[in-house]
Amino acid sequence: MANPAPDTAASTTPERVAQPISAWPAEQRPRERLIARGPAALTDAELLAIFLRVGVRGLTAVDLAHLLLARFGDLHGLYRAPFAELLRVRGLGPAKAAQLAAVLELGRRYQREVHETRPVVGDAAAAYGLLAPHYAGRRTEAVTLLLLDSGNALLALIDVAEGTVDGSAVYPREVVRRVMAHDATGVILAHNHPSGRTQPSAADVSLTQRIAAALRAIDVRLLDHLVCGEAGFYSFADHGEAALR
Q1: pLDDT at 112 over 80
Q2: With the CA atoms of 110, 116, 120 and 125 taken in that order, what torsion angle do they form, in degrees rounded to the nearest 10?
Q3: Which helix (H) or strand (E) holds 93?
Q4: How is the chain split into domains, by residue range?
Q5: CATH of the domain spanning 124-244
């Protein structure tokens, strides 16, 4: 089958004299920025440019990456793009389009694999099933986040504070940072009582209120707060605690 005709909009993009990336200041080059600051510091276009490596006449790899993202709308659109549509983008060519299609397919398979293996945390008992071994044997309090996606599948289980037997310092901004880093849509807050008692204290209620308010500001729900002991747990949600709202 013949390759599709080149994308009209892409092929009529006005050419310009583009300064090669190698001539840019080191702190602006995508590869050098990634090495110095890590991949999370780069934009979608910069990450894509590192994969593309080179551009085409009149366009740097970064320009070509912007063209790709504009052509398909965003990364989500790029992931959904059929191979034939990739071939229509000026500057890709069959070899580079095949490489990009392979990378995108690996990403899709990874997402499917992760989704299939992530536990769904549907209630407080399921959350405690994950937290009990996490807290087993601890002699000090630890404050933990269960970060969930829109289907309540677990994205991450993270300790955000650990302190003495009397308590822990928890900063709402740190909770918000972790939630946003994992793109979570729901959160279960938890902490352990090494004493074994699971009745929440006034400080536990205050913490719940502060975290719930911080998450509301970014449109994320605090689904529950579990106080965990070795033999059981207390669920704010199961007890209808107003602090969650």
Answers
A1: no
A2: -120
A3: helix 93-117
A4: 8-117, 124-244
A5: 3.40.140.10
